[in-house]
Amino acid sequence: MAAGVNFKGIVIRHRRLILTIALGVLALCWYVARVPDPFYRDPQPVRTLKRHREEIMRYLASIEQGRVRERNDGRGYFLLDTLADCDVSVVEKEGNCIVIAFAFMPTDAVPQLIYSPSGVSALPERYVQPGKYRITYFELKQLDDHWFYCLWDN
User: Fold this and answer.
1) Are 42 and 50 in contact (CB under 8 A)?
2) Which among 15, 62, 116, 136 is placed 20 to 30 Å from 125, CA to CA?
């Protein structure tokens, strides 16, 4: 009887060892084979645009058509839920452009996405000539014909 117990104990120990090794191999395969986020190196505003472009375009069209109400405090428009989840703080209209400002720390530059239906020629003057507006740090990158990514700080 004692020999049978030892035999079962050995088998059970081997099952645990095999299960532990199998789980370890499975975890390693998952770690190696998983697909990383293709946008992880992009700044938050650019990632937001790449992930939610169609939804953002529908929202901007709604603003243009007057279907999105302005906020009661006078700071832009009510936010789309997707944009609020992505740390957007304000969506405002400047001339023909729509500026989407993201949350930032007081020590950081203000990150913005700018949609300009007419391209570079229709950008507000403060983005074309930042030195005129006492902006100490300024970076403007054109993402495509109509979208711009901007960082600025006073």
Assistant:
1) yes
2) 62
